[in-house]
Design a protein that fits this description.
This protein has 10 helices and 10 strands. By secondary structure, the chain is α/β, with parallel strands linked by helices. Strand 4, helix 5 and strand 5 form a beta-alpha-beta unit. The chain is globular and about 50 Å long.
């Protein structure tokens, strides 16, 4: 069975992600992610705010997918992921969007929060490639993915761009309602790295490989250091972007310990440690 057919079959008793809601999305049922049997998109455009090797000089062809299987309390895109801002389209239209972004000169197709809509996405990629899609596919994920599905994406995704948010299970339970997130993300990132390895850059643009993003959180620098150690041990040549732009969006105000920006000292501690242990820090 082709990958796309397998993914659609999984949606009939949905286990596309670790939530394993078991709803029949092909008959209009909705699970934790909030999306049924049709693609749902919030926006698409040439994004100039990504990492330099992703945005280049003409922008990253970014598609923001509605809904999410994590719903972090501090989500900066909560209007899309929690409040479901977006509209339904069909797979053919999704393939056309990819081709439009390529026509605009974008350097890649950047799939933001693709986990729960991956069946539609793979289907659309196949359609678009038959019509001339040739730029790299970027899988931009919160990394609460099914390892089985990640393995299916081998040969389809060119650049994996996973977030590695926390390892600490208490933090992932409290802020993400996913106590197993640390384990799941680690297993998925290991397989992404097996597939693609280090980030390969040609003429200033990433063309293949793995770029791990880590957002430093207030009060959680020790967890960040554990993540840096994990990367060193398991995916040593992956590019790493250590991000300092945390802001207490959405429901973060309900959690006093994360209801603040990070300090310069917190960011510097994580960045310096990562450099000292020899990680491949992406300089933008």
């Amino acid at each position: 069975m082709k990958v796309v057919e397998t993914l659609y079959e999984k949606m009939k008793r949905c286990d596309l992600c670790p939530r394993r809601c078991a709803v029949n999305r092909m008959e209009g049922q909705r699970g934790y992610c909030g999306v049924d049997g049709k693609p749902m998109v919030s926006s698409y455009f040439a994004h100039h705010g990504e990492e330099g090797v992703i945005r280049g000089w003409r922008g990253s062809g970014t598609i923001f997918f509605t809904g999410c299987n994590l719903k972090c309390v501090f989500c900066q895109n909560f209007d899309i992921s929690h409040l479901m801002d977006g509209y339904e389209i069909d797979v053919e239209r999704l393939s056309e969007i990819m081709l439009e972004l390529q026509q605009q000169g974008c350097h890649n197709i950047n799939l933001v929060t693709p986990t729960h809509q991956i069946a539609f996405i793979v289907d659309a990629i196949e359609m678009a490639k038959k019509k001339g899609l040739r730029i790299p596919i970027v899988y931009n994920t919160g990394t609460y993915d099914s390892i089985e599905v990640v393995r299916m994406l081998e040969g389809i995704v060119d650049i994996y761009m996973p977030d590695f948010k926390f390892i600490d299970s208490e933090a992932t339970k409290k802020y993400m309602n996913a106590p197993d997130y640390g384990y799941v993300a680690a297993e998925c990132i290991k397989d992404m790295y097996r597939q693609k390895g280090e980030l390969k850059i040609k003429n200033g643009l990433a063309v293949e490989g793995v770029l791990i993003r880590h957002l430093v959180m207030p009060g959680y620098t020790d967890d960040s250091l554990r993540i840096m150690e994990w990367i060193k041990e398991n995916t040593p040549k992956a590019a790493v972007n250590i991000m300092a732009q945390y802001h207490p969006y959405y429901r973060a105000k309900e959690f006093p310990e994360i209801n603040r920006r990070i300090t310069f000292e917190e960011y510097k501690k994580v960045l310096s440690y990562a450099r000292n242990i020899g990680l491949n820090i992406l300089e933008d």
